[in-house]
Amino acid sequence: MSAMTAMRTVWLIPVVAGILSIGCHRPVAIKARRRPAPPGSAPAAKNGGGRKTGRAFLPPGQSEENGYGLYSYLLFGTQPTEGTRERYLAAIQAYLEMIETVDKLETQFKKNELNVTYLLVTEKPGSDKPPAEWLLEHYDFARAMKLLGAFPQAGSLGPYLFSTTEPASPLAAENKNVTCPCLFQDLSTVEPSIMVLWVQEFKKQAAQEEFWLPDKRETAVLKLRNAIAVGASALDATKKSAEEWASLLTSLISWGEAKKDGH
Fold first, then answer.
1. Is 90 helix (H, G, I), strand (E, B) or coil?
2. Which tens digits make up the pLDDT trace of 87-112?
3. Is the dihedral of CA 77, 64, 138, 146 positive or negative?
4. Chain centroid to CA 232: how far?
């Protein structure tokens, strides 16, 4: 057995074990006392609609608008490095592609039905969908570091997605923490190729009435897919090989989910 084959085999063991655990175990239903929705927050619709997530840029000297159901932020803790630049760009690109502008959503929905998601910029862009590279070059890292101080869960890298029921800027200015419940998503180890899946899950979670309670099974699947993407990239430098391994293991995940649903 070659060294590369042995590496592949060793890497597959924990991943396949995780797949089998997803497929073979039913979630345990635990009854808990229902917490009321935060004041001013729009409840999730019974048809699964719930809050709609919209994006907006937040330039210097501009504060968040009042009246939204949720306030979210895409935050980077430090300037991009060789190791983080691709991930930062992937997060910004997913933000642009997966989230509609809040201005357009406001033509159809009330403000308290919306989760406004801000991207901090040093100057207002000339369009509502500038290149991701431009936004990274004009990202307001100083303001982001200040806002991160209001979220005690944050580290120093990012990307992070935070959601809260009140604007974070006034609290950060007074060196106060945001009032939870909060939604916190750490994207600092997410493989850039699947960043859109995490942004999609963020939108889904923000739509829930109890937005601060994570969907543990969905998160587990996302983490497993991330491990697949990271491992596939590490196994072989060629894109084709990585895609083949990712495809194989994603098929195994689908099989595991189908097996679970069949119980």
1. helix
2. 999 999 999 999 999 999 999 999 99
3. negative
4. 21
Q: By the 8 A CB rule, do 119 and 58 touch? A: yes
21: enclosing H helix or E strand: helix 3-24
- Residue that has been written with the tokens 């029921």 in this structure: 165
Find the helix packing angle between 85-98 and 195-206, rounded to 10°.
50
Beta-sheet pairing, 160-164 with 70-75? antiparallel
Q: Which helix (H) or strand (E) holds 195?
A: helix 195-206
Report pTM: 0.71
Specify the amino acid at residue 164: T
Nearest to 102 by CA among 52, 64, 67: 52
What the block records as the tokens of 242 is 């990585």
For 203-249, write each residue's pLDDT tens digit. Answer: 999 999 988 886 666 555 555 555 555 544 544 444 545 555 556 55
Compute the distance between CA of residue 87 and CA of residue 158 in angstroms, rounded to an integer. Answer: 9
